Amino acid sequence: MAMKGLFYNHMDKKEEAYEFVKKGLRLDLKSHICWHVLGLLYRSDKNYEEASKCYINALKFEKESIQILRDLSLLQMQMRNLEAYMETRHNLLDLCPQNRQCWVAVAIAYQLMGKPELGVKVLTVYEETLKDIPSTPDYEHSEMLLYHNNLLVEVALDHLESITKHVLDYRTIKEKRAKYLLALGRLEEAETTYRALLAINPDNTAYFEGLRKCLGLGGDQLTAEEQGKVLELFEQFQAENPRSNAVKRLPLRYATGEVFVRIADEYLRSMLSKGLPSLFVNIKSLYKDSDKEKAVEELVLGYAASLDKSNSFDHSGSSVEPPTALLWTLYFLAQHFDFKGNTNQALEYINRAIEHTPTLVEFYMTRGRILKHAGDLVGAVESLDDAKEMDLQDRFINSKCTKYMLRADQMAKAEETVVRFTRADIANPLNDLVEMQSQWFSLEAGESHLRQGQIGKALKRFHQVEKHFQDYTEDQFDFHTYCLRKMTLRAYVSMVKLEDQLRSHPYYVRAAQGAVQCYINLFDKPPGADTEEMEGMTEAEKKKLRNKQRKAELKAQQEAEEKKKAAANTETPKKVGSAAAKVDEDPEGIKHTKTEDPLGEALKFLKPLQELAADRIETHLMGFEIYLRKNKLLLALKSLLKTIKIDPYYATLHEQLVRFALAVKKAESSLKPNVKSVIDLHWSTLFKDQDLEEFTSAFVKANKKVGSVPHIISAAIAIALIRPSEKSKAETLLFSIEEERYQKTRSLENVVLVQKSLKSLRSNRLQEWKDRARVWYPRATAFQN
């Protein structure tokens, strides 16, 4: 009966499968096979908790079943129940002491539990039992020895020397030897090893850093004598490795003053003459030093002027450069001035480059990037569209163009563009992007829908990203067996540690921020609530508008269903479960907007970040917004305290503190004594024994001296919250940003934030602000009427 159920499960007949397996269990509750099969069913449904219970029941009746123990250990690793995993692996080791995988699995269990010294003992005992070690190293034995070395700390070098002749990965052996010798202070031997590594790969900057430390030339600040020695070292390597780009570029990091100008002049001329498109990317890290930035600018401006007149890098005309030298110089200057924020000058140079050679795709892409930084999203799309049309076979340019379209909220054009590189044999090509786990598209599309107020579609995209991360978690299951069998142990442990931190990835953080914002919007303005456009309307007018919106929604649903039917009629037969057979049942994402607990759904996105990304300030900012709306003041306070710990000067923190104080004041009569005592304990720390008006006034004075636009925006919102009837004060504070002191922080992003703040205050001066903003950013589409 149980085996018949297992066959049904493989035929995707889940109900019949469970029915037969449970019927088999009822016939014999002591059958380890029936319990094992039921566990396999639960495992196939990703219900690991129930599956492990079934395996444990099976082991009660068949304690020494190797297969059941192995399957149980896989589930325990998947769920990260490490103590139970270690115990199960010990049982397997007792049953199969001759099996290398069993020994290694126990060592890995100890390492993941934070007890690497016990893992070392396990591997040492195993290696002592080996009698016939092959004279020529084999891969699996080699990987086990290197993994053993990873677990060692103090005796690592001695162990490394003893295993060298049995290891195939020679480069790793050399890297580890150099690292250990340097840590032990055996500098001469470490220097020899690093030089040997540089002979193999002279472009590896980590080897140069190691060699520099061996020679006693470490540290960020070098004396004139140390600087001379470092540059002399690089000159030596340049003679030995004339084709290495790293040995030419790295001296720029350490040289200063006239020496820097001389080396930069030589390097820039060489690269511009060759026509290296990535030249600016290679050296922009030097711009942290304003003197170096200024020196590079003067050099390249001089090249451009000289190349215009005499086709050479200097006015002597002694060496004539190819025509492309001027082209790449203009390209460099365009990127340089764009990086500095001078978009007008950057556009002048890139337009000159395009006039010079109108067939290079990179120039149109760079012009699009400059226009994006200038705020002209429509112009940026047009420029990327020109680049795309020049090379229709380039997937990267097509994807970049799609991203720019999404940022300009041109959704229809973006979808039409991106499907050029999806499979053409399916009814809905956009589904192929989901199958390929194309997260960048889901994120950009979700953020675009959110900007346009399409909450359902936005949530659908953000949930797609969450599903991808869930898939990554599930996909590791097969590797628990595979990596032990193939002995790829170092990579396996690295993967397990990565999976444990998976949801701290920036893509998940972005998706969580977007989803939380959507659910907060649903909580603040549930479907059917009055919208901004209903302000000032009579009840009859509101009813008429709602009816109109309902009809439009029904029409959209009907059109979607008609498209679905048409696609089903034209679609060729496909295998069940294939990508082509899947039909989008909810194209508008309506099921996500019909949730009864939007804040609870938001918390599902937040919880992984609180566990894995607690050092990111965004985690606690989102937590505050959710907990304040749930009226959980202690959790909101906890989020505030963690935000202060990470960055006490964060811009929006002041606004959140004021909102917290107002929420406490509002709920003061209903606060429980223990909650109030905890809040009172931290009150003086948060507000410095000042009332809210004094607290905000002090905040404004401090930030006027600094000239920080984001902090002034936060203060203006706080003023409007404290005294809603005096919003003119908040407006005046926001308009003070046009003063000279705010010039450095008056970026396009911050000016747009001011506009959004005025809109949220329902200010009558919104148009006045747009007119002023256009003076600073005449190309920005955000300020056009």
TrEMBL record:
Comp. bias regions, Basic and acidic residues: 550-565, 582-594
Matching Pfam families: NatA_aux_su, TPR_8
Keyword Repeat on entry: yes
Region entry Disordered, spans: 529-594
Domain of life (superkingdom): Eukaryota
Keyword Phosphoprotein: no
Keyword annotations of the record: Repeat, TPR repeat
Start and stop residues of the TPR repeats: 32-65
GO cellular component, one term: NatA complex
Protein name, per record: N-alpha-acetyltransferase 15, NatA auxiliary subunit
Upper lineage: Eukaryota, Fungi, Fungi incertae sedis, Mucoromycota, Mortierellomycotina
